[in-house]
Amino acid sequence: MDLNERTFELLGNRLSELEYMCGLNDTVSEKTDYITLDLLDSSLGLSVQSVDENLELVTLPPAGLPDVERENVTNTQEDFTFEFVRGLQNTNTRRKTESDLRKFNDYLTKNGEHRNPEEIPVYDMDMHLARFFMNAKKASGEDYEPDTLKSIQGSVNRYLAEKKLNIKIITDKEFKHSRDVLLSKRKLLRQLGKGNREKRADPLTPEEIDLLYEKNLLGTGDPKSLINVLYLNNTMHFGMRSRAEHVSLRWNGVQQKVTSTGEEYLEYRERSTKTRTGVTSESRSFAPKMFENRDNPRCPVLAYKEFARRRPEQMNNPESPFYLGVSRHPEKAWYVNQPMGKNTIGNIVKVMCEAGGMQGRKVNHSARKTAISSLVHAGVPPTIIQQLSGHKNVNSINNYSTASNEQQRHMSSILTNYSSSCSEPPVTEFDSSSSSLDKCSSALPSTSVVPSSNTDDITKTELV
């Protein structure tokens, strides 16, 4: 028996054993064919014990399909499937990863490293990252913000994961040195005044919203002010995020309904969002609603009805975009048969507030921040706010728990009017046994307690 005959005999015996072990009842050719990588070596003289110890199952190509053709088909299928996954990834995350990788690759090239990140050995990669975190600067020569360096680290980690490398620079002990350098650099940047969140969005105050109405930048009297009102209402009452969710909103995404008592309201039908992408069956605890306020000219249901009346008939299909382009000839029609551009939607609040002369950084996220911070200051429990805002973690609500201007003004008033004759600082919980209370009480401004909110009526709270 020659070598080839012996090899095929051995293969046949081994396949029969594997068929029995896997519980296959039909012939192996009609199921998945299994071999071992070391099995071929056994035909060249290796012991059966060596084969058993190094057993590794791999799939054989289907019968009748040449290896080269199968390889081409597999590569084509893999390219398609990977492209399918990439196409459904968060667009902002993908852009951020690509942008950060360009920064890191530019740094590597300038320092004589021409290999791709996935080709660099672990030790060298750790040292490259450490030097990058320590020395990298913007094109203008300025230092990066502390959070920017941290996000670049995350982008490099995502990139290596996409390249199927079993490497995690954020947790692996082999990258401890680069993490220590990043931590030290972040501390140094904070000492230099970086990281003060200058780009944090500012919420709209009640006075600013009133001013926007007075200047006809909010209202139902013209197409632009009506779009502004709709954007503000949808963001605040439905807990919608910035541009992406508004761009994907369709006409049937907001439905007009009536309660059993005849009260009209609008209900939001949520699609894919930042925290609920469809990967799991997780959904909101309730469908967000905004209720009518018949005695208020700013009633959100009234604004919606006016928008529905002004829309072109062709754009009332369920899958038509919610936001429409503003017509250049409002005397004929307020809106055109085209969706509003994503960049226009992304700058609605900024353009509106600049026209109104608002101070601070007012952007689209300001509307969402206004809604959440208003509920926080009104005493609504964070767990209830979370159900409206759509946050995964209730602790995220704490990011909106910053003191309002009115609260800061009140604290300043307390400190300004604090009498130097008081031996103790002001207290908020009075104790009749405290001898200093009567002494200091005249120096304190009057305070008011915010009543606890009735959570059953939260969806009816009028924010705009």
Layout of SSEs?
Blueprint: H1 3-22, E1 34-36, H2 39-42, H3 48-53, E2 57-59, H4 67-87, H5 91-110, H6 122-135, H7 146-162, H8 176-191, H9 206-214, H10 223-238, H11 243-247, E3 254-258, E4 264-268, E5 289-291, H12 300-310, E6 324-326, E7 335-339, H13 342-346, H14 348-355, H15 364-377, H16 382-389, H17 405-416, H18 437-440
Antiparallel strand pairs: 1-2, 3-4, 4-5, 6-7
Estimated helix fraction? 40-55%
Low-confidence stretches: 24-65, 274-279, 427-464
Number of helices: 18
Computed CA radius of gyration, to the nearest angstrom: 32 Å
Largest sheet: 3 strands, antiparallel
Q: How many strands in all?
A: 7
- Element order, helices and strands? HEHHEHHHHHHHHEEEHEEHHHHHH
Give the CA-CA distance, first to last residue: 90 Å
